[in-house]
Structures are given as structure tokens and as C-alpha cells.
Amino acid sequence: MSEPNTKNKILDVGERLFAQNGYDRTSLREITAKAGVNLAAVSYHFGSKDKLFEAILKRRITPLNEIREHRMHRVIKTAKARHTLPSVEELLLAFIEPTLEFIDNTPESLDFFIIVNRCTMESNGVERNCFIKLMQPTLMKFYHPLCESLPRLSKEVVFMRFMFAIGSMVHTIRMLKMMNQNPEKNTVIPHKVDLSVITEELIKFVTSGMENP
């Protein structure tokens, strides 16, 4: 197996096992056994379990954040051209829509979002710290224009509501992916929901929450 293929195999298997078992209950030996490689390969490509976990998050989060920031800059540029501030809805759409597009185009995305959900809910420091490290720069780039577009709210309230919006996005994605993958067990929504509908309704919901006096 070539080096790039070995590295990608470790990332793929690691992502699946971390999603299934969590960080603490997943060992490097289990990952290497499932990937068909030895421990030396993990050490060579990543160095440690912590670094492997960070690499698994980074390969998904980094391109997503690049798209988010590109769309955010486009929203701000368009708003300046019309001599207004960007709307809250436009900013939230720039953040959320790339995530939903990723879901629609990436069959293995459920594993990634299960890991993200663990990062935001479980107490393990490695999971939480890796996620914060990778997300914080982009979150702050969105946070500042959101504050400008919501001048009547304190910065603390804007931050909390932005976190609530992100939490709504992550939870919605996970639940809908699980229901769509197990339609026979889904007694709530009897058919697969179109991503454009999810995007529209989610943006309405979180925008209303952000803008509420």
C-alpha cells in the first residue's frame, strides 16, 4: 500500500471507529488492525492518537471553513456595495449551507458529525480541545460581523445565540441523517427530506432566534 493510501486508510478507519466508540474507547491497535497496517505507520504519519484524532477532524473542518469564510467575505462585500451591513440571515446561511452541501455530497459524513457531536457534548479534553482549536478562528470571523449586525444585543448574547444556532445545525444534521438511513424505523418523517428544505427551515429557525429582541 502506497504512503498516501496508507494515510487515508488510517484516517477513514479512525473516523469510523471514533464515531462508533468515542475517543477513549478506541485504541490505536484496533484502528491499525481494521486498517491492515502496523503501529509504526500511525507513528510515521501522525505521531500519536491525539494527532490522529486532530487530523481526522482537520481534513473535514478545514475545507468546510475555507468555503464558509469565502462566502462570508462575499456576503460582506455585497453588503458594502449596497451600503448596508450584512443581514444575520445572510451570515448564517454562509456558515450553515456549506455544511449541508457537504452532507449531501459525502456519504460518510455521518461518522464525522457523530464525532463533532461528541466533541461538543462529552467531557473528554482531547475531543473538545481539538474541535475548539480548529473551529475558533472561523467562528470569531463570523462572530464579529454578527455583532455589528445585531447592535442592540450584547456581545455575550450574540455569542451564546450563535452557539445555539450551531448546536441546532449539528443536532438537526445528525437526526436527519440517521432517519434517512433507517427509513423503516422512522415514524416521524415518512420520507427522505430534501436538503434544500432543511436548509431553508433551519436558516429561518436560527435567524429568528438570533434576531429576537
TrEMBL record:
Residue ranges: DNA binding: 27-46
Alphabetical list of InterPro entries matching this protein: DNA-bd_HTH_TetR-type_CS, Homeodomain-like_sf, HTH-type_TetR-like_transc_reg, HTH_TetR, PsrA_TetR_C, Tet_transcr_reg_TetR-rel_C_sf
Keyword DNA-binding in annotation: yes
PANTHER family listed in its UniProt record: HTH-TYPE TRANSCRIPTIONAL REGULATOR RUTR, TRANSCRIPTIONAL REGULATORY PROTEIN
Keywords: DNA-binding
Residue span, HTH tetR-type domain: 4-64
Molecular function terms from GO: DNA-binding transcription factor activity; transcription cis-regulatory region binding
Keyword DNA-binding recorded: yes
Protein name (Swiss-Prot/TrEMBL): Transcriptional regulator, TetR family
Pfam family membership, one: TetR_N
Protein species of origin: Desulfocicer vacuolatum DSM 3385
